[in-house]
Amino acid sequence: DTAVSQTPKYLVTQMGNDKSIKCEQNLGHDTMYWYKQDSKKFLKIMFSYNNKELIINETVPNRFSPKSPDKAHLNLHINSLELGDSAVYFCASSQHSTGELFFGEGSRLTVL
Amino acid sequence: GENVEQHPSTLSVQEGDSAVIKCTYSDSASNYFPWYKQELGKGPQLIIDIRSNVGEKKDQRIAVTLNKTAKHFSLHITETQPEDSAVYFCAASLNNAGNMLTFGGGTRLMVKP
Question: How close is the nearest chain A Cα to the Cα of B99, in Å?
Answer without folding.
Answer: 6
